[in-house]
Each structure stands twice: as C-alpha cells, then as structure tokens.
Design goal:
Blueprint lengths: L7 E5 L2 E5 L21 H25 L6 H6 L5 H14 L18 H13 L6
Helix pairs in contact: 1-3, 1-4, 3-4
C-alpha cells in the first residue's frame, strides 16, 4: 500500500481534528514519523496494519466455518449474520487489505477510522453461532 498523505483525522484518540497542512510535503518512499510519547505515532501505525490482520483472521475463520465455499465473498454470503454488517465487513476488508496501492479517487484513507467498528463486527460475526448454514 502506498500512502502519500493523511488528509484528515477527526475524533480518534489524540487526533481530534488533524488536517494535513499545505506546507507539508507528501510522504516519500521512506518516512520518519517522530514525536513525544503520547503524541499519536502508534495510532497512525495501527490504522494501516489493521485491515490486513483482520482480513487474514476472517479468511482463516471462513475457511474453517465454510470449507465448501470457493472464495472469500461466497464464504461471507454463506452466513446468516446481519446482511448490512456482512456487506460492511466485505467492503472494508476488500478495499483496505491485500493491495499495494489504494487509489485516492476510489478510497478515502480517513475511512480507516471505522476500523474499531469493523473489529467489533468481525468478532460478532465469529461469535454468531446462528450463522452456520
């Protein structure tokens, strides 16, 4: 995944209303993010590692739960879990994981702020005993 800038972060931990200043250069191939303890460095890293970890967890779970389904989408659709949450999980995990580049015109990187809700939905999906068909 190539990240060139973070346009805006609103209401996430230390970031209440962060906006990329025009005088800042875009990220290059290698970047150093530094700051005081508690200044938000780890929160930024968490956003970008989460989608791939969540996708791997979901794929492993689905392969166990729905081994006869041929692919990720059909495995998710095999579940009777809430349809809106299934769609949100699929969209998020497809859009933000297993990709080298996120196209800015299609994906807004600030949507990664929904990661905590996605994690909650993912854990609910895995805990839902009714979803076995």
């Amino acid at each position: 995944m190539t990240i060139t800038r973070i346009n805006h972060i609103k209401s996430h931990r230390i970031f209440q209303d962060f906006a990329w200043h025009n005088d800042l250069e875009d990220f290059d191939r290698y970047n150093l993010i530094y700051g005081w303890n508690g200044s938000g460095k780890r929160e930024l890293a968490d956003f970008y590692a989460f989608p791939n970890l969540a996708r791997r967890l979901m794929e492993s779970f689905l392969a166990f739960r729905y081994p006869a389904s041929p692919n990720f989408l059909s495995q998710i659709q095999s579940s009777t879990f809430d349809a809106a949450k299934r769609t949100r999980l699929y969209r998020f995990l497809n859009a933000y994981s297993h990709r080298e580049v996120i196209e800015e015109q299609q994906h807004d990187l600030t949507l990664l702020a929904e990661a905590p809700q996605i994690l909650s939905d993912l854990l609910d999906f895995m805990a839902d005993r009714k979803s076995v068909v």
